[in-house]
Amino acid sequence: MLSLNKYLEIGMTARIKKIVQMEDASANASSYLNSYLSTSACAAFSVAAAMKITDGRLPEGYLSVGSRLELEHRVPAMVGTAVTVEATLREIRGNRLIFSIVGSDALGEVFTAENERAVVNRLGLDDRAAERAEELKSLKEKL
What is the pTM of this model? Predict the structure, then answer.
């Protein structure tokens, strides 16, 4: 079994800085909110920051895939606002990585998140996805 402690350490951090753009507001369900950072953009920023920690550190053929994301969007941030997102590797549990994430602007926290990611072999992932696609195709043909 792959020991992730050889590649990653608890407490590792990564930051991304983003100026909120119109596309970061476009996922809002209401046109009234089209000038505010969307919660789905907060989720994407969170995942990007967590992945920045693992990028280039996992062994050849392995990658992390998201298995859970819990996010609390606390205050609004308008288009044009600079948001810094910091992810910290909080826990390594087998092939699972748990990240704590904080997104903030100059006034403080905008959102917080916890992202759980599984480290998997890319070939195994491809095989499982192909098997599932084949099962779905077979089911569709039966209906």
Answer: 0.88
